[in-house]
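User: Please work through this fold.
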Amino acid sequence: MNDIVTIEEVQAVETPEATDTWQPIPHGDLLTQVGRALASTGYRVETERYELDQDGLRMFATWSIINGVASEDHRLSVGIRNAHDKAFAVGVAFGTVVLVCSNLEFGAEFVLGRKHTSQLLVDLPNRISDLMGNLGEFRDVHERRLEAYKRTSLDEATVHDVLIRSVDERVMATSYIAKVLQEWRNPRHEEFEARNVWSLMNAYTEVFKGTNTFDLSGRTTRLHGLLEPLAVERGNDPGQIVLDIPQAFEIEVEVAVEDGGRPDYIIN
């Protein structure tokens, strides 16, 4: 289990020396770069959570962010990660945090990944800025998806089918089926008592709570692959259902290993 820490503790972590082929970036510097890019596009951080693992060698941050009028039940989130032990690449991801229960769900795969190579400190600021330029489009796409989920009713037979298919599609292991079904049948938050896709999605994310942000990204991307067709088939407003959402975030990934570290998925 990662340790929940303060921003000051994150900034105090020492950064290892660089080598000819490996360039670490201080955890605090990475957070500063992402924060500046957000500010330049009009976003501000509303809440923040920081985790350290392996005695500070690995850092994970999750920010809920806001720009203009905020949704009543969810916020756009940014997940940030960094490693000083060559375990994985620098990563930044977009997603959603549900305000009712502090559930995270990331509707896109990693939207930025950068190995710790010698030019990291040179080109990372530009890559982060380019990423934030897509933030508004991602927000619009994802909010329309969630609204479609709220309008789409579900019956028990369909829920059971989705649960089995979610194992086939590697959303979760078989051992999770009973837990998600229990959360669906007896949601711990009254906001999810409606029998719709939105409630089912939150049954999953409630069970997945505590999962590493970047592991959760792949899970929920595959989950949306099951849920979106339901909204298309059953949505009450054909003019706004998920079918109309542009496929703006189809990304190509490759497996990369940093100097003997474990495999990691990054953006080309």
In short: Helices lie at 7-11, 27-40, 120-132, 135-151, 156-168, 177-185, 197-207, 213-234.
